[in-house]
Amino acid sequence: MAVFTPLGDAQVATFLERFDVGAFKALKGVAGGTENSTFFVTTDQRELVLTLFEQGEHEELPFFVELMDYLDEHRIPVPGPVHDREGTALQSLAGKPALLFPRMPGSHPESPNLAQCRALGDALGRLHLVSQHFPGQRPNPRDLHWLQAVHHKVLGYLSPDDQTLMKNQVDEFEAAFAEAGELPCGALHGDLFRDNTLFEGDTLGGIIDLYNGCTGDLLFDVAIVINDWATDDDGRLDAKRHDAVLDAYLARRPFTQAERALWPAMLRMTALRYWLSRLLVVYVDPPAHDLTPHDPERFRTILKARIDHGALPLPEVTTR
Ligand SMILES: Nc1ncnc2c1ncn2[C@@H]1O[C@H](COP(=O)(O)OP(=O)(O)O)[C@@H](O)[C@H]1O
Ligand SMILES: N[C@@H](CCOP(=O)(O)O)C(=O)O
């Protein structure tokens, strides 16, 4: 479930009056989602999404609004928040911070085809081209410093072999990052899984859920995408999907030498990032709501596969 704060029709109808979006017709709670209350809202003019922010860092919401506004202005397919007649996006409803969005078309691709992988790679490449000039700052909260600082919290819940695996990998990342030097930076989506995209057929309808958005190494985003979009059930990379995403991405933004050198370690690091964050949810900081946590084992399997089989060769670059 993902309606933690119920809303009534009259309440939403009154809320909509401050926007130029037409008159209220219907309200429907959205079942998906894990953190916020999400509603589909229909007016006599358009389809909208209303989000109430239930948890997390509310003081960071202005950053997310600024990021979504910026990407929307640069024609990246994200839902640009609807601003009210006074120009304000961030509102309050039922005592919670609230944002209104255009409803993007499509559904989440469970098993993306190659055209969808190319569309996603292209969109992420374009996103990273413009995001290097984004003026906002929110240091990546799940970067190497975070791994170093918090991985000890879960060690006691792991087998001796997994403890060694986790500690050794964190040490290896430290050495690899120190050797790699400067990487291209900009704003990141930070969590670009398949279920944060919407597709209508092969067309990317939207990239949603930018609440892990931050600024940092662009390569971090690319590695998250490959680990989710181009990985088989056994954790191994699927060469066709891998090449489809990266062909399209690299045509927009070729990797630097430092990125190429760090790529295998970044694939492992982002796998460990999710292994760790999911372990923290299961053992250390369970969610307030009764939700089934994501399976940490999936990312342990991916990490092991990246260690055992390495990265695949990066496609040759043909820039657009
Ligand atoms: N702008 C949007 N357009 C269409 N559907 C959306 C939009 N925003 C959210 N959704 C739908 O609502 C669901 C939950 O939204 P999400 O932001 O992922 O919530 P949570 O942060 O709680 O996981 C998504 O999986 C998607 O189906
Ligand atoms: N999509 C993630 C959850 C978001 O990560 P978090 O670090 O903000 O908890 C997942 O699949 O685990």
Automatic annotation (TrEMBL):
Its EC number is 2.7.1.39. Gene3D superfamilies: 3.90.1200.10, Phosphorylase Kinase, domain 1. It holds the Pfam family APH. SUPFAM superfamilies: Protein kinase-like (PK-like) (SSF56112). One of its GO terms (molecular function) is homoserine kinase activity. Keywords: Amino-acid biosynthesis, ATP-binding, Kinase, Nucleotide-binding, Threonine biosynthesis, Transferase. The keyword Repeat does not apply. It catalyses: L-homoserine + ATP = O-phospho-L-homoserine + ADP + H(+). Residues 27-255 form the Aminoglycoside phosphotransferase domain. Pathway: Amino-acid biosynthesis; L-threonine biosynthesis; L-threonine from L-aspartate: step 4/5. Belongs to the pseudomonas-type ThrB family. This is Homoserine kinase. It comes from Vreelandella malpeensis. The gene is thrB.
